[in-house]
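To whoever is on call:

I kicked off a structure prediction for a single chain this morning and the downstream step that reads the tokens threw a length-mismatch warning. I double-checked the sequence; it's 344 residues and nothing unusual in it as far as I can see. Pasting both halves so you can look.
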Amino acid sequence: MSDQIISILAFLVLISIPFIVKWAELKNKTTTFQSKPTKQKLDIKNIKKNPVQKLPNQDSVIFFRNKHDGSVMYIGRISDEIKIIPAIVKVNPAAMHRIIRKDLKVAHAMVKAAIISLSKGDVQLATHLFNIALDNKECLSSGDKIKVTKFYEVYFNRKCENEELEGFYKKFANLSIAIEVDSSDADLYYQRGNAYAQNDEHNKAIADFTKVIELLPNSDCAYYNRGNSYGSISENHNFAIQDYTKAIELNPRFAEAYNNRGVMYYRKDEIDTALPDFQKALLLDPHYAHPMANLGNFYERKNDKYSAEYWLWRAFIYSNKNDKEFVDYIWRRLKSLNYFFNYK
């Protein structure tokens, strides 16, 4: 009898060990969490309640409110001026004049923030920031002074024309003005190139992506997007293949570049050369539906309809159901195979 009791107690001890270990881990984890500093974000709206705010994990970031006139003052360095400056301007524009005179780096960041605001279509905020920069022109570098001057020359000459534009084309206009203000910003060319590509203006997109490559020779995304535009307008797919190959050289894990290069080989009727690219894209991203669909097409060309239907079904399962065009295409391909059952 005593042996049975000992066995039961030993069993209970054994099964309780994992719970004890888990409890100890949770306790230790809780202690560790409490010992870490709480993450804090700069809250411009609460500056009146908190005269001094400091952000951890950044270098000497302090904003405080002047008790006499309520202005927000900047002290020390800040690593994210471009995002914070528009917020300060919206709360207390007068503070920016004092902040600029305190640190000339903020003046440069404000011009940059103005150009970004302009490229995003927030012309009112951009104009406000440029106005502050103009009022404090002595604090600007020679390069920033040129950008401010160009903004007034270019934007206000086109203001009436831009006001007649709507929607998508207004985005082009604002980006084009931003590029004229700062022609060395690769990101602006990249944004406009994408906008042109979405609007099927691929020749203009190619020109912008080429400019991005001039400014950033190691931009794999610029090569990839230029390859997409070449593939959309040219029967000679070699230009697209060259760009995809360069994108892969710069980023060997670029699954989309492998897939699209395979598509170009497929269109050139070099289907055996396309196969390794589809397989590599799927190896890098096992849930990537497009190379699955392309493998389905490949095996259909090889008269292996069972394998073709297998890959098309997988493409349907992993496809983004919001991409109606792609989903409809997969259904049409499956219906054309008509192998396992008939679609009514």
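Update from on-call: the warning came from a stale cache, not from the record. Cleared it. Sanity check on the structure: The longest strand covers residues 62-65.
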